Amino acid sequence: MHVFELIIALLLAGAALTALSRRIGTPYPALVALAGAGLALVPGTPTLVLDPELALTLFVAPVLLDAAFDSSLRDLRANWRTVAGLAVGAVVLTIAVVAVVARLLVPGMPWAVAVALGAIVAPPDAAAATAVLKQLRPPYRLLVILEGESLFNDASALLIYRLAVGATLAGALSPAGVIPLLFVVTVGSAVLGLVLSRVMVLLTARIHDVAIAVVAQFCGTFAVWMLAERLHLSGILTMVVFAMAAARRAADVTPARVRIPSYAVWEFAVFVLNVLAFILVGFQLKGILGRIDSRTLLEYVGVAAAVCVATILARIAWVSGAAAFSRWRCRPAPDGAAGPRDPVALSKRSAAVVGWCGMRGIVTLAAALALPTGGDGGPAFPYRDLVLFTAFSVVLGTLVVQGMTLRPLINVLKLKDDGSVEREVRLARVETLRAALSATAGLPGDEMSGLMRRRYEIMLRRAEAAQGGVGHAPDGAATSDGRAFSCDAAIVRKATSAERQRLLALRADGTIGDAAFQRVEQELDLEELDLQQLAPSSDSEGAS
């Protein structure tokens, strides 16, 4: 009971720290990480050890699905070289540098353990960076690169992590079998994710009760992860493919009355999992501090500091080098002819921001917590205390040093939003309203349908004025939320269905990305729910 009360108190503290972080423009995981570190120093707090097999499933699966569900395939394709370079090249370089540093400082550490440590601290967490960047409104492309990287660097890092942990516990690993194994795991995970996304959409499309739908979503998420792990595939890759495919298919079959509350529940769940991860690490750090003397603690601190610096510098080196190479390739020829065009080359200022956005987070913590403890009768992972201490120190160090200086860096570099998402949002509003107006034009000419057509005409004029840069409604325009008009259920269904189909078509042909799609989809959801309340002959299930 004491542990439960402590966790509730810490969750409340996490909420307070999050509110504070938004006021001062700092990633909330930075303040929560400081609280987790302080927890290890509080006398009387218990020592808890999480089941290693539960750590990755509990903390990574829901967080990864939440991130992948909102990702934009169009934008990822446009920036695939930069994203792939970060997700593979930067991860491999970081693992190699960290492994060498760890071996130099701890000569007795096996190479497999050093590689596992490198794989644990290699993948950055985009959530911490984007939490700050979205407030500062930098170029949208930077957000796409960081969020896309976070989806796939977890997969590459944890694949190497699994191989390194297996080699450590088994004592050997056949190099000849690694490449075929990685190929099978990659292809198998992608296929499994696609198949399961179809199954999940077919099942959830029939659910119109909010509570049941949310439970099905969470249970389905854990089921996908556990099935992939049982088949010895990559839970990360399977989850990314599953979420991205499901997001495309579920948009036109999920009712608005289910989608809106489910998004809120997922946001809450991701926040709670982040806070709990830092709490559990704080509990485990207390146990580590109780097992080592002051001399060993100093050695741990030295290793952790060196690994943290190596982690930061390796990413900066990769991003700066890759960006410089892309710009060099695109330089004009001596005779004045244009060089090869590279539309995804990062400018010096953009590369500086991407290189500095290397904060580690929940994936690093979960991977460290997942190391075998030996409590189930199996072998304990060598140097587990040192690896866990170092992993948390890297998370804490990067969140504090990089997270708290990201806002000043953006302000100094003067990187501003290019307005691409806003332009797509305005375009989508105009196109969907035209679709609604066209759909209502074929209705019988009674007073009700006339009012609805008038409503959409006014809203379309407002949207076209905003798209043209006028920024205000024409004279006599009513409010755009539909409250000035009565409506009929059949008209509402026909108009909103036309708007959604047009919005889906705009995303499918690449006219708009997922960022604009999700904003307009939310507006349509809220409008649909408002209009359903005003339609006396509609029922909640039929109207949705």
Comma- or semicolon-separated keywords:
544 residues; mainly alpha; Na+/H+ antiporter like fold; 2 domains; 74% helix; 0% strand; globular; disordered C terminus
Would you mind describing this structure in some detail?
The chain starts with a helix and ends with a helix. With 544 residues, it is mainly α. It contains 22 helices and no strands. The chain is globular and about 85 Å long. The protein has two domains: 2-413, Na+/H+ antiporter like fold (Up-down Bundle), CATH 1.20.1530; 420-543, no CATH class.
List the helices and strands and how they pair.
Elements: H1 2-24, H2 28-39, H3 52-69, H4 73-78, H5 80-105, H6 111-121, H7 126-136, H8 140-170, H9 178-204, H10 210-230, H11 235-250, H12 256-291, H13 294-329, H14 348-356, H15 362-369, H16 384-401, H17 406-413, H18 420-441, H19 447-467, H20 489-508, H21 514-534, H22 540-543
Helix pairs in contact: 1-2, 1-12, 2-12, 2-16, 3-10, 3-11, 3-12, 3-15, 5-6, 5-8, 5-13, 6-8, 7-8, 7-17, 8-11, 9-10, 9-11, 10-11, 12-15, 12-21, 13-14, 13-16, 15-16, 18-19, 18-20, 18-21, 20-21
| Structural domains: how many | 2
How far is the N terminus from the C terminus? 44 Å
Coarse shape: globular
H-E string: HHHHHHHHHHHHHHHHHHHHHH
Mean pLDDT score: 82
CATH architecture of the largest domain: Up-down Bundle
Rg, please? 26 Å
CATH fold-level label of the largest domain: Na+/H+ antiporter like fold
Number of strands: 0
